[in-house]
Write a structure and sequence with these properties.
The protein is mainly alpha-helical. 45% of the residues lie in helices and 4% in strands.
Length: 160
């Protein structure tokens, strides 16, 4: 799709510490962040939220939402993921029409927030010491991956 027509994408500040940790900090002996951008983390979370049927309204009790310029989602397949999730959820191709971008983004944001809740739960269940291991354990627990990984995981562009 890559039309550059998306409005800003919002996220609740509820999980901001986790977002910063996974997208900005280098963990342990890692040479780069677990997720190279917040955009990629949000796409991962939205796909996870959709796959596990966890759609949640953004929690406004933590203050104004953080946002990412919609133009940032024009890179790679991110914009396509926004529309794909909106289409899968609504089951109506009208969600893809011009003028419905905000509706598609709202659906994406809610699945991303639901996915962030899932990732946060995984981190808490595994003590939060090794977030890459916690995410892998969660993915394995839900049948998204099988067996033990043999190399370092790179969640950038969703490589495992």
């Amino acid at each position: 799709m890559s039309s550059g027509r998306l409005p800003n994408i919002h996220r609740s500040k509820k999980h901001e510490a986790m977002v910063q940790r996974l997208c900005m900090e280098k963990e342990g002996g890692m040479t780069k962040q677990l997720f190279p951008t917040i955009r990629e983390f949000m796409c991962f979370c939205a796909l996870l939220g959709y796959a596990l049927s966890r759609r949640r309204e953004l929690d406004k009790s933590y203050g104004p939402h953080e946002d990412i310029a919609g133009a940032q989602f024009d890179r790679g397949d991110s914009e396509d993921i926004v529309f794909m999730i909106a289409l899968a959820d609504s089951r109506d191709t009208d969600i893809l029409r011009l003028g419905r971008e905000a509706d598609a983004v709202a659906i994406f944001e809610e699945y991303a927030f639901g996915g962030m809740e899932i990732v946060n739960d995984w981190l808490l269940q595994n003590g939060g010491e090794a977030p890459d291991s916690a995410i892998l354990a969660g993915l394995k627990q839900h049948g998204f991956i099988q067996g033990a990984p043999t190399a370092m995981i790179d969640f950038g562009s969703f490589r495992i």
